[in-house]
Design brief:
Radius of gyration: 25 Å
Strand content: 15-25%
Structural class: alpha/beta
Distance between the termini: 28 Å
Oligomer: single chain
Largest sheet: 8 strands, antiparallel
Shape: globular
Bound molecules: fructose -6-phosphate
Length: 611
């Protein structure tokens, strides 16, 4: 995720800014840059790739000497991760530089307006519009220009701005993207998107809230609302160590990422749900409604967790959009002779966008004449670049090797895509679509509530941490959730676990059940609930220990199972998202209790770039 650092004081700004950027590296990024005010001019340095590339630029004689500046690590959302698209962005005449975290939803409209006014925009980013809007709005006060510009912006932002018109000043503002001020001791102040970037200099910070802004000089700072009124803020003393801050106070990235899911789900849906029209809008499909309607069949392709999301996609698209779907392991797809051709739509699903097998499958599908879409998290990744179009998850960097937040966003995205296809193909009515959209909107809050079960699930983990096998059962949309629950446990705790379609168990796996076998049964109130109750009875009759994931208010299973985990009521297609969250937590706690390296399990890589 992007990171912001700013400094105003009496020391050379560039080395301090670079040091701050390094502290934010753990968040993941694809380019970096800084702007420093030097003798009334703005000097900008930017580089694609690691911060080391930016440092190389600075070392080779390019270090701007000044004591006020802003810097940024970018994790691409709009536009490829190139040097040009790296922040800071400047206006036409180099008077304003801006760094920005978040997404400007109306950037397209703003860009058109600015171009009509004669501005030349040089990058593909949404952020650049802010620099030009400041140029338009400036009438003697940088603070007022920032206010005026932001009044026109829809979306989310944490921004920091410097200007040649008012050197030795940084103006910052926040809506939906974190920002804090670091209050220095001796005539210096900092701004950052994350305390990790400032704690080596000061432990005194002021967290801005949404709708607030601040003006920093070397002698002090002033906080105000975006409307203009003064706001008094508390100075907080930060006493975490750096490592804890980088993980947002969580002991592991995996837990941090599990807890980010309310936000990542919001990000996946932001600006895409059109409730009134019962429709979904994606900016980057590069396919017309007619082209989408003409698709005769869909092949969903992925590996591991992304393949599990694809399997849910198959159930969704066949059930709701009535279109034939195949789900393929990328590694298998390449080496057989799949029936994919010009009438086919291939959708490759990948968090990293770099998985070698998935990339090769994309190329194979393309060669066979299919149109290829990518559902990808990492912007500008190879899969994102090579696909004909696609949908970004906007989940931010996933650092824990076990995929968590990417999975729930992939499923939410597939639900949205299904709504689009169902509406275009006439298989989904306006009322049904509105119902799905309303349920999607509730999801982040429901996941938030589910995360409150963390302690209860920790206790459960204590009871089962020494088991050597686990079985996960689900039916319908929750069969893939059972596979995903089992995979999470396997990969981080090294306990053997199998996911099964619950009724299929009778054809073999039931032989494994005895009093030492914990069986996780996913049994929400959905179309197959009554069927799965019979499977619960079958397990119980053989002495298995049952952990059931049920919908709130389910009293029926209380006496039939050993433990209940309750999830909020939702529509059938969204149950796998809610069911997966407690299973992620269960795997996490068991792995921690077994002393495993949760974030970097043995033998696994985050991005599998070899066949
Ligand atoms: C499991 C996991 C892997 C990945 C798989 C595909 O937790 O992370 O199974 O899902 O390697 O990776 P992406 O989605 O990056 O293509």
């Amino acid at each position: 995720m992007c990171g912001i650092v700013g400094y105003v004081g009496h020391r050379p700004a560039a080395p301090l800014l670079v040091e701050g950027l390094h502290r934010l590296e753990y968040r993941g990024y694809d380019s970096a840059g800084l702007a420093v005010l030097v003798d009334g001019r703005l000097e900008t340095r930017k580089a694609a790739g690691k911060i080391a590339e930016l440092e190389k630029l600075l070392r080779n004689g390019g270090q701007p000497i000044g004591t006020c500046g802003i810097a940024h690590t970018r994790w691409a959302t709009h536009g490829a991760p190139t040097t040009q698209n790296a922040h800071p962005h400047v206006d036409c005449h180099g008077h304003f530089a801006v760094v920005h975290n978040g997404i400007i939803e109306n950037a397209g409209t703003l860009r058109q307006k600015l171009e009509a006014l004669g501005h030349t925009l040089r990058t593909e980013t949404d952020t650049e519009v802010i620099a030009h809007m400041l140029e338009e709005a400036y009438a003697g006060s940088l603070e007022e220009a920032v206010r005026a510009a932001l009044r026109q912006v829809q979306g989310t932002y944490g921004i920091a701005v410097v200007s040649t018109h008012e050197p030795d000043k940084i103006v910052v503002a926040r809506r939906g993207s974190p920002l804090l001020l670091g209050i220095g001791e001796n005539g210096e102040n900092f701004v950052a998107s994350d305390a990790a970037a400032v704690v080596q200099h000061t432990r005194r910070v002021v967290y801005l809230d949404d709708g607030e802004m601040a003006v920093l000089t070397r002698d002090g700072y002033r906080t105000a609302s975006l409307q203009g009124g003064a706001v008094t803020k508390e100075v907080i003393h930060v006493d975490w160590d750096l490592a804890a801050i980088e993980k947002g106070g969580h002991p592991h990235f995996m837990l941090k990422e599990i807890f980010e899911q309310p936000e990542t789900l919001r990000n996946a849906m932001r600006g895409r749900l059109l409730e009134e029209e019962g429709m979904v809008r994606f900016g980057g499909l590069n396919l017309t409604p007619d082209e989408l309607t003409a698709v005769k069949n869909i092949t969903l392709i992925g590996c591991g967790t992304s393949w599990h999301a694809g399997l849910i996609g198959e159930y969704l698209l066949e059930e709701i959009a009535r279109i034939p779907v195949e789900v393929e392991y990328a590694s298998e797809f390449r080496y057989r002779n799949p029936v994919v051709g010009p009438d086919s739509l291939a959708i490759v699903i990948s968090q990293s966008g770099e998985t070698a097998d998935t990339l090769a499958a994309l190329r194979e599908a393309r060669q066979r004449g299919a149109t290829v879409l990518g559902i990808v998290n990492v912007v500008g990744s190879t899969i994102a670049r090579e696909a004909d179009g696609g949908i970004y998850l906007h989940a931010g960097p996933e650092i824990g090797v076990a995929s968590t937040k990417a999975f729930t966003s992939q499923v939410a995205t597939l639900v949205m895509f299904t709504v689009l296809m169902g509406r275009l193909r006439g298989t989904l009515s306006l009322i049904q679509a509105r119902e799905i959209i309303a349920a999607l909107r509730k999801l982040p809050e429901q996941v938030e509530k589910l995360l409150g079960l963390n302690d209860q699930i920790g206790e459960l983990a204590r009871l089962y941490k020494d088991s050597t096998n686990f079985l996960y059962l689900g039916r319908g949309y929750n069969f893939p959730a059972a596979l995903e629950g089992a995979l999470k446990l396997k990969e981080i705790s090294y306990i053997h676990a199998e996911g099964y379609p619950a009724a299929e168990m009778k054809h073999g796996a039931i032989a494994l059940i005895d009093e030492n076998m914990p069986v996780v049964v996913i049994a929400p109130n959905d179309a197959v609930y009554s069927k799965i109750v019979s499977n619960v009875e079958e397990v119980k009759a053989r002495g298995g220990r049952i952990i059931a994931v049920v919908t709130e208010g389910n009293h029926e299973l209380k006496n039939k199972v050993d433990h209940l985990i309750t999830i909020p009521e939702t529509i059938d297609p969204l149950t796998p998202i809610l069911a997966t969250v407690p299973l992620q937590l269960l795997a996490y706690h068991i792995a921690v209790m077994r002393g495993c390296n949760v974030d970097q399990p043995r033998n696994l890589a985050k991005s599998v770039t070899v066949e």
